């Protein structure tokens, strides 16, 4: 199979684009590298398009492997005809391939196989031909008590079992039925009797039905979860009266006794074989679609979280709040290293308000603290309120930071390696502070699915989820770039072409020899070969290097082009980077070569203008309404500020500072129809919302963003 041609046609791309992408992937190039540094080869395809090419190629390879296995199996049985082989070779989907193989697949004992053992297959063939007018006579001829066929009725029943299996294994019928189920099947959900109270959270699906093709991913996953938990009973099928007439018409060709037997067999085949098989397929197909959509939402949320604005290199105090156990306080230097830690007790039961206040003031003054990060978990709002009342001797930004996943980090081997002499509370506070300074650098230390910004992440295909989230982290890390002299091993591991082992070697080399002075020095790292250098160098930054390009996204393979530009301008590379007039005088067409085209040259010029620029948005301080600290302070109609913490297909969750996120249902996002909330709002976006309902018993808050105004 010409994979490139098939993919190009399916994705609407030029053949050469696909061929070049597949060749680059085969050579070991990563998707971020191809998208950033091989634009001439791909005609500037982005990461999503390159990923689609890779994924489709993998599926086509898998299809061909299965095709070969099926051909071998049928050939070994001596049943492979030229016509069948042609059908198998032309099959373009796994379901079609499996339908063709079904009659030849080794089976366990079935009613049809038992009937065949009794010698009733010839009778089934006679009935199926529907030409025999004296069926009873033929059936009696197949009575054989020694084989368990006691009567003509026994013979006819066995023959019908064989016909039912033939019907269920007819490839063209299965394909048409599959298409009909896909469009018309209805998923019906009923509560399991006696489970109404225990399964109350699934009450929306106690008596629910809709065409499955219209069912959104979050509803499907909710129903499947309810079924798995034993609270719901699901069925997936169209109305039988819409299926059986068509099936009978296809197989029943005569109005004689044989036709009547075929009609009975078709009905049995549908109810006993085809319908359950199609339902199983529909479950698989639509579960897979729901998984893909849920994973897409999770990955997009993760991307937004990882690319959240960093505060930057500032001296930060971080507080992990608590009531009974106190608030753990740490101070971090501009590189995120721990300078000091202690515990304060500003809340009941100890309520050492003045002592805690004095300690914080002293630390702010002693360490010249520039910002305070407060975790948003238990006692978070109370701690923020307490800190906001302290008259610090210097201006200090106070920021509430998400704690999601911090406990995972603090108990991890990564945290133990970083802080072997400190307990989990200190590590957790450090993580909160570092998240404020650089969310990306800190969150890469936590397994992506532990960050908690998705929907039904525990119900979806875990392999697909892990692959997607890892790709998202890799994409974000390479998009931002990594300072090689300060990056953690975990952050370096996501750089294109590096991985965990080589990341460890980089850190070990850095610890032994001191900071890297140039990108070329990376070649001295054990096992950092030419291929790794090609893939990684452009994404690794070295600020303060002798060559200023080492701090930029310009790849070393293109340094010669920049040197040539500088020479023609009569200046140094550094001068070129600082002088816009000199850059504007450059005619890019003069530097086009067989290996460097205009897309790369334009990227180079952008980098020369803003070398190593962080592409993430600027950090903005956000404050909750200080008069609202618990759910009891809320009233319907209030308009309050909030920050979006999670986005799903049914809406978004907003933290308004009361320990319980509120839900803005998709219908409350806008007056216009919204198909994907992610197209309207973004994670960590600051918004104003109106409170529309408060359920104190269930701790549920309903919010709206429609017609919201604020002063």
Plain-language structure description:
The protein is of the alpha/beta class and 711 residues long. The chain has five domains: 3-104, Orthogonal Bundle (Arc Repressor Mutant, subunit A); 111-297, Tex N-terminal region-like (Orthogonal Bundle); 316-437, Nucleotidyltransferase, domain 5, CATH 3.30.420.140; 499-609, Tex RuvX-like domain-like (DNA polymerase, domain 1), CATH 1.10.150.310; 631-704, Nucleic acid-binding proteins (OB fold (Dihydrolipoamide Acetyltransferase, E2P)). It is built from 29 helices and 15 strands. Helix 1 crosses helix 2, helix 10 (135-141) packs across helix 11 and helix 15 runs parallel beside helix 22 (462-480).
Instruction: Classify the secondary structure makeup into a structural class.
Output: alpha/beta
Strand order of the largest sheet: 6-5-4-7-8
Helix fraction, binned, reads 40-55%
Looking at CATH, the homologous superfamily of the largest domain is Tex N-terminal region-like
Mean pLDDT: 93
Number of strands: 15
Q: What distinguishing features does this structure have?
A:
5 domains; five-stranded mixed barrel; 29 helices; Tex N-terminal region-like; 15 strands; alpha/beta; Arc Repressor Mutant, subunit A; 711 residues
Concise structural overview:
The protein has 711 residues and is α/β, with parallel strands linked by helices.
Topology:
Layout: H1 3-11, H2 15-26, H3 31-37, H4 39-42, H5 47-76, H6 82-90, H7 94-101, H8 111-117, H9 121-129, H10 135-141, H11 152-168, H12 171-184, E1 186-191, E2 207-211, H13 217-228, E3 232-237, H14 244-251, H15 257-306, E4 316-320, E5 327-332, E6 338-344, H16 353-367, E7 371-375, H17 380-388, E8 397-401, H18 406-410, H19 413-418, H20 424-437, H21 439-443, H22 462-480, E9 482-483, H23 489-492, H24 499-513, H25 530-536, E10 540-541, H26 559-569, H27 573-578, H28 580-584, H29 598-609, E11 639-648, E12 651-655, E13 662-665, E14 686-695, E15 700-704
Helix pairs in contact: 1-2, 1-5, 2-5, 7-12, 8-11, 9-11, 9-15, 10-11, 11-15, 12-15, 13-15, 14-15, 15-22
């Amino acid at each position: 199979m010409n994979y490139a041609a098939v993919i190009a046609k399916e994705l609407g791309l030029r053949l050469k684009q696909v061929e070049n992408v597949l060749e680059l992937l085969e050579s070991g190039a990563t998707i971020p590298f191809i998208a950033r540094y091989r634009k001439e080869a791909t005609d500037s395809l982005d990461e999503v398009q390159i990923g689609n090419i890779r994924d489709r190629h993998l599926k086509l390879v898998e299809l061909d492997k299965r095709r070969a296995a099926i051909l071998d199996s049928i050939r070994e049985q001596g049943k492979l005809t030229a016509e069948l082989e042609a059908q198998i070779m032309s099959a373009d989907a796994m379901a079609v391939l499996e339908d063709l193989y079904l009659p030849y697949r080794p089976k366990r004992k079935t009613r049809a196989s038992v009937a065949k053992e009794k010698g009733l297959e010839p009778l089934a063939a006679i009935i199926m031909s529907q030409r025999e007018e004296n069926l009873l006579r033929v059936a009696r001829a197949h009575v054989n008590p020694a084989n368990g066929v006691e009567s003509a009725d026994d013979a006819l029943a066995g023959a019908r079992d064989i016909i039912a299996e033939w019907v269920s294994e007819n490839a063209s019928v299965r394909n048409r039925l599959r298409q009909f189920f896909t469009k018309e099947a209805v998923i019906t959900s009923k509560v399991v009797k006696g489970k109404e109270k225990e399964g109350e959270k699934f009450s929306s699906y106690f008596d629910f039905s809709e065409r499955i093709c219209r069912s959104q991913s979050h509803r499907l996953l909710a129903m499947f979860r309810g079924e798995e938990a034993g609270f719901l009973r699901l069925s997936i099928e169209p109305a039988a009266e819409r299926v059986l007439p068509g099936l009978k018409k296809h197989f029943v060709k005569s109005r004689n006794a044989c036709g009547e037997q075929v009609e009975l067999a078709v009905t049995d085949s549908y109810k006993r074989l085809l319908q359950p098989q199609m339902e199983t397929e529909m479950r698989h197909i639509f579960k897979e679609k729901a998984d893909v959509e849920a994973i897409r939402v999770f990955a997009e949320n993760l991307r937004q979280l990882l690319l959240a604005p960093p505060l930057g290199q500032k001296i930060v105090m971080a507080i992990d709040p608590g009531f009974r156990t106190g608030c753990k306080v740490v101070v971090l230097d501009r590189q995120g290293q721990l300078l000091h830690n202690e515990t304060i007790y500003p809340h009941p039961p100890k309520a050492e308000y003045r002592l805690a206040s004095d300690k914080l003031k002293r630390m702010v003054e002693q360490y010249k603290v520039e910002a305070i990060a407060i975790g948003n978990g238990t006692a978070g709002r109370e701690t923020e309120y307490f800190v906001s009342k302290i008259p610090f001797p210097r201006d200090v930004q106070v920021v509430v930071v998400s704690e999601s996943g911090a406990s995972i980090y603090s108990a991890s081997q990564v945290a133990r390696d970083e802080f072997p002499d400190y307990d989990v509370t200190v590590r957790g506070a450090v993580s909160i502070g570092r998240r404020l300074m650089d969310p990306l650098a800190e969150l890469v230390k936590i397994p992506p699915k532990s960050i908690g910004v998705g929907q039904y992440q525990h119900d979806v295909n875990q392999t697909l989820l892990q692959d997607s989230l890892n790709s998202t982290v890799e994409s974000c890390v390479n998009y931002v770039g990594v300072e090689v002299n300060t990056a953690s091993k975990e952050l370096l591991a996501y750089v294109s072409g590096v991985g965990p082992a080589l990341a460890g070697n980089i850190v070990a080399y850095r610890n032994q020899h001191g900071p890297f002075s140039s990108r070329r020095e990376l070649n001295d790292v054990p096992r950092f070969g030419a291929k790794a250098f090609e893939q990684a160098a452009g994404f690794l930054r070295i600020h303060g290097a002798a060559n200023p390009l080492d701090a930029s996204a310009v790849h070393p393979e293109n340094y010669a082009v920049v040197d040539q530009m500088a020479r023609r301008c009569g200046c140094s590379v550094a001068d070129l980077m600082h002088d816009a007039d000199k850059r504007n005088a450059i005619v890019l067409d003069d530097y086009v070569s067989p290996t460097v085209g205009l897309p790369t040259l334009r990227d180079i010029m952008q980098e020369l203008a803003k070398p190593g620029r962080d592409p993430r948005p600027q950090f903005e301080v956000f404050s909750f309404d200080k008069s609202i600290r618990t759910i009891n302070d809320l009233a319907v109609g209030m308009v309050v500020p909030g920050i979006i913490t999670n986005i799903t297909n049914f809406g978004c969750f907003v933290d308004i500072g009361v320990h319980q996120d509120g839900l803005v249902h998709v219908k409350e996002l806008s007056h216009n129809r919204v198909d994907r909330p992610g197209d309207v709002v973004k994670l960590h976006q600051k918004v104003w919302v109106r409170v529309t309902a408060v359920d104190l018993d269930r701790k549920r808050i309903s919010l709206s963003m429609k017609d919201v105004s604020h002063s």
